[in-house]
Amino acid sequence: MNTVRRETTLSAIGTGGDADTFDSESTTMTTPLFDLTGKVALVTGGSKGLGKAMARGFAEAGADIVISSRHAEELEPALAEILAGTNSRGKWLVADMTDRDAVDGLAREALAAMGKIDILVNNAGSNVPQAVDAIEDDKWDQIIELNLTSCMRLTRALVPQMKSRNWGRIIHISSVMGLTSKPGRSSYSATKAALIGMTRAMALDVGEFGITVNSIAPGPFLTDLPASVLSDAEQASFAARTAVGRWADPRELAGPALLLASNAGSYITGTTLLVDGGLLAKGF
After folding, report:
1. Any domain includes 107
2. d(Cα 249, Cα 131) in Å, to the nearest integer?
3. Into how many domains does the chain fold?
4. Other beta carbons less than 10 A from residue 60's beta carbon
5. Sign of the dihedral through C-alpha 158, 159, 161, 167
6. Which segments of the chain are extended strands (E)?
7. Contact 82, 105 (CB under 8 A)
8. Domain boundaries, position 238
9. Alpha carbon 184 to its chain's center
10. Where residue 241 sits, what CATH number does that domain have?
11. How would you label 189-228 residue by residue, b for 16+ Cβ within 10 Å and e otherwise?
């Protein structure tokens, strides 16, 4: 099928004067800096929220996509939405990231299905609010396993094939709660702060192989998770604390993720990109 291309010229930055273009009909980014054509991205927790938004951004930039979550009934329609209007291929895989065998199996299945994984986004995570003197061991262990250990295991499984090609992008989704916190978030903040530290160390392990490792620390993004654990008053309070006075739409994380996943971010590694609408800037 022939596609009519309607291109909007963007400013040329670092491209030797060639204008960047965006194909508004097929929603495919054609700038060389952000072009992911030929790359394969795996996004955990990719059936909704931030994961789905980032996967969509990668597909628009030309990448083939693998998404995973625990629920097949959510994955199939999500992948269809992610790929709609693009030329990208996709695969969805069911995986419980609190099950170590399932995490290892996800890596094997993704590689078998797509042949390689160039971009890994460790996005799956959860939050069980409990005050420090009420933390239950099983809930603590669950959050540590999901938010932290699964990220290590999946990264460990996929790094060797990235090394073999001397190219890779690893993005851990931390949180503003890894840099600040609120009552009842000891478990969650512990894992998100740990991801920031793990990011620094991993970057040093793999930098010589052309692999970058970074974290994104989102602030108030209105996804299912904060909607389920925050009251209306808490949601309003978070919005008021930002410089822009609102919660973010999940699609507003696609750009930062694309920067770190593409050649545009090739010299960014071992760091945490704060995407919080100015929440931490507004101290008083």
Report:
1. yes
2. 29
3. 1
4. 23
5. positive
6. 7-10, 20-23, 28-29, 40-44, 64-69, 90-94, 119-122, 168-173, 211-218, 272-275
7. no
8. 24-275
9. 25
10. 3.40.50.720
11. bbbbbbbbebbeebbeebeeeebbbbbbbbbbbbbebbee
Q: Is 200 helix (H, G, I), strand (E, B) or coil?
A: helix
How many angstroms separate the CA atoms of 199 and 214, rounded? 6
The confidence score (pLDDT) of residue 17 equals 34
**Catalytic (active-site) positions:** 188
How many CA atoms within 13 Å lie on the side-chain side of 94?
Answer: 6
Q: What amino acid is encoded at 152 in this protein?
A: M
283 assigned to some structural domain: no
Residue-level pLDDT, tens digit, the chain, 284 residues: 333 332 322 222 233 333 333 343 445 545 689 999 999 999 999 999 999 999 999 999 999 999 999 999 999 999 999 999 999 999 999 999 999 999 999 999 999 999 999 999 999 999 998 999 999 999 999 999 999 999 999 999 999 999 999 999 999 999 999 999 989 999 999 999 999 999 999 999 999 999 999 999 999 998 877 777 778 898 898 899 999 999 999 999 999 999 999 999 999 999 999 999 999 998 78
E strand map for 33-110? 40-44, 64-69, 90-94
Alpha carbons 231 and 208: distance in angstroms, whole number: 46
Query: Is 250 part of a structural domain of the chain?
Result: yes
Parallel/antiparallel/unpaired status of strands 119-122 and 40-44: parallel
Instruction: Say which DSSP state 245 is in.
Output: S
Q: How far apart are CA 108 and CA 103, in angstroms?
A: 9
Q: Do the domain assignments include residue 81?
A: yes
* Secondary structure (3-state) at 214: strand
Whole-number pLDDT of residue 283: 78
